User: Fold this.
Amino acid sequence: MTGPLLSAVTFLPALGALLLALFPRGRAALVRWFAFLVAAAAFAVSLLLYVGFDAARADYQFEERLSWMPSFGISYHLGIDGISLLLVLLTTFLSPLALLSSWRAVEDRVKEFSMSMLLLETGILGVFVSLDLFLFYIFWEAMLIPMYLIIGVWGGPARIYAAIKFILYTLTGSVLMLVGILALYFQHGAATGTYTFDLPILARYVAPGGSQVWLFLAFALAFAIKVPMFPFHTWLPDAHVEAPTAGSVILAGVLLKMGTYGFLRFCLPLFPQASLTFVPWIFLLSLVGIVYGAWVSMVQPDLKKLVAYSSVSHLGFVVLGLFTLTPQGIVGGIIQMVNHGLSTGALFLLVGILYERRHTRLIAEFGGLWKAIPAFSVLFMIISLSSLGLPGLNGFVGEFLILVGAFAWASGLPAAGPLAYLVPVLATSGVIFAAVYLLWMYQRVCFGEITNEANRGLPDLTGREWAVLVPVLIFIVWIGVYPRPFTGMTEASVQALIAQVQAKAGIH
Amino acid sequence: MSAALVPLAPLLLVAATAGLLIVLDLLPPREGKGHLGVVALAGVVAALAGALTLWGREGRAFGGMLLLDNFAVFLDVVICYAAALVLLLSMDYLRRNGMESGEYYILVLLATLGMMLMAQAADLIVIFLALELMSLSLYVLAGLFRGRLTSAESSMKYFLLGAFATGFFVYGIALIYGATGTTALDRIAAASGGLQRDPLLLIGFGLLLVGFGFKISSVPFHMWVPDVYEGAPTSVTALIATGSKAAGFAALLRVLFSTFKVAQPDWALLLWVVAVLTMTLGNVIAIAQSNLKRMLAYSSIAHVGYMLVGVVAGGALGAGGVLFYLLMYTFTTVGAFGAILLLERGRQEAVELDDYAGLAARHPLLALTLALFLLSLVGMPPTAGFAGKFYVFGAAIRSGYIWLAVIAVLNSAVAAYYYLRVVVYMYMREAEGVPTRPAPSFAGRLALGVALWGVFQLGLMPAPVLDLAQAAVAPLLR
Assistant:
């Protein structure tokens, strides 16, 4: 493949945002179409990545490297492997849909909203394609501002509180990561004589034990806050509830994945011994997150909050899968990132559709929607089932692989005895709880008689809403029935990652 | 011009312009002194260009009392940028407030001259003279809006505390002279037997640090900052926050790194504590401010803390990082004060947070500009603020001061709260009462444009300037 394809995908949305700035005020329809088309174009270009990607290779592909600040060993270095490709595609896939979903929900300052969404997309894509720690950090931080504005300007009643909480939490984590990045840079430079922020080069270096633990913690805290793992999750429900639908879709769909991606791309290969040391702690926090998130979801009166807490639970699964360090667990974790992006993104879209009609998200306000808006209810059913992991839909594939990975991990630890099996067993309980809270929610919203007169005569899905939901639905079924194209994309990279971690940690 | 004066060309240009202004001020018209501002600006820009052409030259003048090296050139450039931007901002601002006068421009130039003199001083006596020239001009400037009580208070407070600090400074010089028999910066080191062996020198050095601490407003000598910054005319505040700080750091770095190099472990330890206190106190108190000028005053204290991190770290990256930081801080801070200065609500300057509510809806471009300056103060990439913090904190980590770096980055996270609160008001709240509107000032907009260019130039392409900054500190470190 020729040409700087990755740069094109990454910066196309930002370019669109800059062009949008020149648009006259008050031409909302034009602005909406333009932003949507730009995001759709980015998706189209990203499909070229998919076409040109060689899944048999484990190394980075579509690499671009330009010297940026040579005296510091900073370069503009992009590249993707099977792990990042899926997340890039997920981002470019969800962004146009999120924009499309906001056509009626956002009436105020449409131009600025669309610009923020496009800049956000560039920031997130940049995180997934950067292979230079400095560049990565710039995207990681720069993406905070558009998200902050999206929550704070176009959000709900408590939006300012939520926006500030979001940014302070994530900023605290990321500035400590900055110290970690710099410490790694100087340590590597002092040890090898090469001062560089280049990830592939740094990944070959094994930091000495004591400092590796600190470096791991500096990175892991930033990622744990972003995921978010228990107990750093409290910003998430606030941000989700207050954010506009499009913001929630991107937040749940791809932004949280930056945390799990960070664990996979940075923590594991850069600090393998420390990662192994902390596996019990990570598992503990993941399990607490899985179970606690599910329990808290169960009692939420607000649909959006319910979905938000279910994210905490689902992402606990993902992190668990990644840290089993088994091929099934990691592939499952990656697939589950995509699944969560699709299912939870779609759930937020559906909640948004309800909210646009009724201006409330309280479960108690609904009931019997099956009779009023059947098409909506069918889609809501399918997507809830996908989220709770029904076989045949996407969620099952990811959760199954993660649980297999967890069992494989436990059986690889004969020293721990049967205690190790507690991990997969407790994780499985999360699947059951997910069924409880999702089905119970569904029952209260859609089944029974219409108890609230306001729900009678609600309009069913419009053409635009179908256009937003059907693409998501296709992938939900596709991954559920035939996940091979998706898992196949990542397997080579995952195998290489595991081999690298084991070689560096001295395990055979 | 004789060859001996070449190293002083930037200084002489500013001094000559100041002289010219005094003459021009006497000529008609009696009202409307805007043309004096243009002349002053031309002089400062000429000095800036002159300084740039002197890069790479070394020289001394007046029997070695003044010198020129890359360090001096770099700081001359920083100071000239600060002065030029402040002059651009002043022109229309003074007219709007009915305070346009020839003295203003003359005093700004004299203050600038003092600042540049500090950067080029090779002798403690010259540093003292320069400090006084700068400070006395600024005392008067702070009180320029003589009809306003706050302005008078600002001037008085600045003068009293400043005079007190200068007293310490002179006493320090006297003790050092007593201990070593010289006031020349490069001869003190040779003539002394080290700080430990000579208590006189130690006390003298300590008193010098008090004087510098006052000028750069580090804790515990920061008390004057909020009142002075709030009360002084905003253009003057911008000059105090940037130019005088750069001048203070110029002399401080020279004294620390060349004169008291042997004592580096000792002063680094002291400044470690001062840095932590300065940034923490500045940031914590800034959170409680509802007046933007006061908030920026405390934030400027915090930024001094960050710069001291670079001083503690030392080496080419640390000291060079401080120079880079000063340049980026000049662009960012003049920009932020400039945006405030352009905004008015009714006949009043808009300085309260409430004045900024809903600004983004009515004046999106100005709100965006101010937001970008604030983000640069937060240290968000890809603005200059990020590059500046990256270098000074990186230098600290390289020198092994990990905890200092951790405290510093956590401080920047805290600072994000109060900077972003302004963004909250501008973007997320509705306006009430009389709307805030920007004054129609071309010069002011030009200043903001230049500052914004600096913020992104240094943010996206920081390496060339940092290389220059590192080359600039080389003469100090050898």
Notes: Chain B has a mean pLDDT of 90. The first helix of chain B runs from residue 9 to 26. The beta strands of chain B are 59-61, 66-68, 343-345, 348-349, 436-438. Chain B has one domain: 3-477.
